[in-house]
Amino acid sequence: MQVPVQFFSYFKELTGCPQTVETVGHGTTLGEMHRQLMSRFPKLSAMEKSTLLAVGLEYQPRDYVLREGDEVSLFPPVQGG
Amino acid sequence: MSCGKATKFRCFPQCRAAEFLVQSLSLPAQSLVVRRELVITSDPINEAALVAARSMSSGMGAAAYFAGVVRATEEGRDIRAIDYEAFERMVRRQFELIFDQVEKRWPIESIRLVHRIGVVKVNEPSLWVEVIGPHRGEAFAACQFLIDEMKRTVPIWKKPVT
Questions:
Q1: Class for the domain spanning A2-75
Q2: CB distance from B29 to chain A under 8 Å?
Q3: Which side of chain A, N or C, has fewer Cβ within a 10 Å radius?
Q4: Would you say the pTM of this structure is higher than 0.90?
Q5: Under an 8 A CB cutoff, do B155 and A8 touch?
Q6: Cα dihedral A43, A49, A50, A54 sign
């Protein structure tokens, strides 16, 4: 299954790209995909604990099971205001 | 990320009619249709125009509003501006969820919020929020809650411009 992934803020600098596509197996959780992305983009690992994960327009926990059509976003803590 | 033009949504002109209905039926305040206005814009925030456009019913006694303004220093460094980036579709969704919570917790009549994206110079407002409620307690509390939640969940980031 191919999952589109987008990065925001300085995560774009850490990965060198604003978006990518990650191939994962069926039943893969969001947390597992995050680990897969940290292997592919090692600079993301420094932010592992504070990374926010969203699917579509909602935050999701790390045990969320990815489905066909999901779009994932990774970003650092937010700073509005 | 495309900034786009200012957009406005979910503005309910029927608010006063709904309030009349609620008063007639003696329903709790939480049953009011709350007027919501959310603007995400790259244009400067015109505070005077926002205040001039205020609309509140005779039952409301408090309009609490707040402007967040860009400071000249960020983490000890002098800066000229802040460049705000937003995941705009998610920003709208997360603000909607926060507004839902505000409506459930306080008997307010109206929420208006403007957040700038793109480059905002020092001394210019990046955020403007107004909450209208029957008393200052509810209005201040709702306004504070809204801003606290925004800083926790709404996907906007800032990059200092030196």
A1: alpha beta
A2: no
A3: N
A4: no
A5: yes
A6: positive
